[in-house]
Every structure is written in C-alpha cells, then in structure tokens.
TrEMBL record:
It catalyses: L-lysyl-[protein] + 3 S-adenosyl-L-methionine = N(6),N(6),N(6)-trimethyl-L-lysyl-[protein] + 3 S-adenosyl-L-homocysteine + 3 H(+). SUPFAM superfamilies: S-adenosyl-L-methionine-dependent methyltransferases. InterPro entries: Ribosomal_L11_MeTrfase_PrmA, Ribosomal_PrmA_MeTrfase, SAM-dependent_MTases_sf. Its EC number is 2.1.1.-. One of its GO terms (molecular function) is protein-lysine N-methyltransferase activity. Methylates ribosomal protein L11. This is Ribosomal protein L11 methyltransferase. Pfam families: PrmA. The gene is prmA. Belongs to the methyltransferase superfamily. PrmA family. Keywords: Cytoplasm, Methyltransferase, Ribonucleoprotein, Ribosomal protein, S-adenosyl-L-methionine, Transferase. It is found in: Cytoplasm.
C-alpha cells in the first residue's frame, strides 16, 4: 500500500524532540539519514552520533491528513517545522528490490562475488557465492573491493590466512577459493561469525579449513597472509597484535581507512613491514606490505 512520507531537515540537537513528536502523532517508522554524505566513524561507546545535517524520515498511513499532521507537530514542538517535504510514495518489496540491485561483481582477474540467488557469469572462474544479509560485507564497499583485488593478485597456494574482523567471511573465503590452505576468522560480533560459517558452507568450505573465533578465543598462531578490513583507529591501536600474527616474510593488507588517515596507519606498521604504495578507491585506501 502507499505511504505518506515526511522528510524533515534537522540538526542533532533537534533529533529527540522531532522523533518523539512524529511518533506521538502516529508515525509507523522514523529513520535518520545523512543529508550530506558525511561519514561517522568509531563513535564513543554507548553513543548514537548523528550527522551535522540530518534528514528525519517518517512514514504515516496513506490516508493521514497533511494539514492536521503539520499542525499537530507544530503544537507538540512549539514552533514552525524546519525545512520539510511531504510526499506520497508507493510501497514496494524492499527485499526483492535489494536482491535485484545486488549483481555479480568481478575483482581482479579471477575472482567473482556472486549472490547466492544469481547465476555465475563465468562458471569456470573463481566464484564466491554470498548471501550476506544487510549487515555484513558484500564486496560493494570500496574497502572490501580493495582487499578482494589484492587477494586476487596474490599467490596463495598452500598459504595460511587470517581474516581479522571477518564480518561475512568474504575475504577468508575468497582466499581459500584462490588457493589458501587454511583460513582463520575472528570478529567481535557473534552474528558475524555465524554469517561467516553460513557463507563458508554455501561455498562448500570444510569447517575445519575455516574456523572462526571471538578474539579472546583465537589461537595464538601466525599466518602467511593477514587481512584486516576494520577501521583506522583499531588498526593503529592493535598494530602490535596484528603485526604479531604475520610470519616473517608474510604479507599484510589493511583497509577500512580513509585517505586522510593513511599516513597515521602507515606509520604504525612502517617499522615492521616493507610497505607497498598506498592503493586508493573512492576516498578509501588499502595499505599492504611484507613483514621484515
């Protein structure tokens, strides 16, 4: 069925007032959206930061009277509404729409990421079947793409690999399909570990070849190849721990890093690694190198 959508341009200090007011007048959902493509990274624990320019979207039943709605909102909030837009939108099958938009993607020369509901464009290529849900890596983000392209360019036959912050397991599974002997995944989110197991099973990966652990449970072992696609802050603070996972002569790839954060991350690893030139994609970077 169709809906009445109200879009308000607000600042963070207005968020709670207008969210409460919209719910009070009958909104069936309220969503905060970035109005200017402004990223928020590594918020303080227990906080829910908003963008400096935020859009607040609320959905109402289609027969809601617009004039009465605005009047009630202004009465509840004590003044005229901020810049706003009201429109009627048609309902759609959001899951179906998302599935239709998630198409097979090629990374490097050999590797394809293929939605589990889609035919592989090149059946003889290295095809990774993925059913990530909406929460974990699909390969569409530049940082994941940078890591997948790097893995495709590596000689992985017989190597041991660690995926530090494994999410959907996409990087570890790609490494295994590209020839790695074994991969270990670790993540702080138990749901990520479950997603990794599910995606490994979908690709015919023996569970013994891809064990996954919470960080506290991870065995103390080194690998020939370590990939960590997390965030710049943790990459810097965890540099000694991540470095210790890489064998002498082993290879490391780091991402989840904005271009302006690259030098800080490089500096944290420069003593222990011979670093490659920084690779970039859409404002994000990958830092890779070989352990001294």
């Amino acid at each position: 069925m169709p809906w009445l959508q109200v879009r308000l341009a607000i600042t963070p200090d207005q968020a709670e007032t207008y969210e409460d007011a919209l719910l009070e007048v009958g909104a069936v959902s309220v969503t905060f959206m970035d109005a200017e493509d402004q990223p928020i990274f590594e918020p303080d624990l227990g906080t829910t930061p908003l963008w400096s320019n935020t859009h607040l979207l609320a959905l109402f039943e289609a027969d809601t009277d617009e004039t009465n709605l605005v009047a009630h909102l202004e009465l509840l909030t004590g003044g005229a509404l901020p810049e706003h837009q009201i429109e009627r939108i048609e309902d759609q099958d959001w899951e179906r729409s998302w599935m239709d938009n998630f198409q097979p993607m090629r990374f490097g020369r050999r590797l394809w990421i293929v939605p589990s509901w889609h035919e592989a464009p090149e059946p003889d290529a290295v095809n990774l079947l993925l059913d990530p849900g909406l929460a974990f890596g699909t390969g569409t983000h530049p940082t994941t793409a940078l890591c997948l392209e790097w893995l495709d360019g590596q000689e992985l036959d017989g190597c041991d690999l660690i995926d530090f912050g494994c999410g959907s397991g996409i990087l570890a599974i790609a490494g295994l399909l590209l020839g790695a002997r074994q991969a270990v995944g670790t993540d702080i989110d138990p749901q990520a570990l479950e997603a990794s197991r599910d995606n490994a099973s979908r690709n015919g990966i023996d569970p013994a070849l891809f064990p996954v652990y919470l960080p506290a449970d991870m065995p103390q072992q080194q690998a020939d190849v370590v990939v960590a696609n997390i965030l710049a802050g943790p990459l810097v603070s965890l540099a000694p721990q991540i470095t210790a996972l890489v064998k002498a002569g082993g290879r490391l790839a780091l991402s989840g890093i904005l271009a302006e954060q690259a030098e800080e991350v490089r500096a944290a690893y420069a003593d222990a690694f011979v670093l490659d030139p920084t690779a970039d994609k859409d404002g994000w970077v990958r830092i890779s190198g070989v352990r001294r």
